[in-house]
Amino acid sequence: MQPPSPQPVERIVARFAGRWRQGYVRGKLRHDPAFATIAALLLQADARPVLDLGCGMGLLGQWLRECGHRGAYLGIDNDPRKLRAGRAAAATLRPALELRFGDLQALPEFSGHVVLLDALHYLARAPQQALLAACAQRLGAGDRLLIRSVLRDASWRYRITQAEELLAAASGWMRTGAHHIPTGAELSERCAALGLRVSRQPLWGRTPFNSWLIVAWRAPA
After folding, report:
1. Each residue of 114-137: pLDDT tens digit?
2. Are 97 and 58 in contact (CB under 8 A)?
3. pTM given for the model
4. CB neighbours (10 Å) of residue 53?
5. How far apart are CA 5 and CA 207, in angstroms?
6. CB-based contacts of 47: which residues, under 8 Å, 6+ apart?
7. What digits encode the pLDDT tens for the residues 41-63?
8. What is the DSSP letter of 122?
């Protein structure tokens, strides 16, 4: 399935109110490679339900709909402002998107694909491990856990990402700052301990940030 062309991107943008928010959405959809990459992986699998943790305004859900995904979508976030904007923007979409206020440390019952897009590092180490375990429990046969996260290393990209995280927290766009940024080895080892196979690849596209995509799935018995 091909990613949305500029026209569908503008359809998503037009659903949001306010010039600033529209500009933000347009920039994210045009320049962040996570949406196209994650959508391609999910659409290659099937139309299984998607649980989007730390969903923000539900942009991934709207992108998936534009790509042809018709499975259930449940987004969880703890920011009421973003959820209100996302619900208003997605009000006319069919099948509907569900955007729900919630805590990533108390996940709802679910079975399907799980996505963590730039959310894991806002938790401390122990809650991260608990969340990964909860995500693994919600994966059925063929389902994938897709994590886009900054990883801690010695690169210039990591230093720029640290500065960007401080700015996002200071501006109020993010409700909290980063608590624990894992290394790639730490994250892979934790997923392996949960019985998951893991692959890892850079996902920074044309951005300067140290973003990586971790794909985990349950190993056959």
Report:
1. 999 988 998 999 999 999 999 999
2. yes
3. 0.89
4. 21
5. 20
6. 69, 70, 71
7. 988 766 789 999 999 999 999 99
8. G
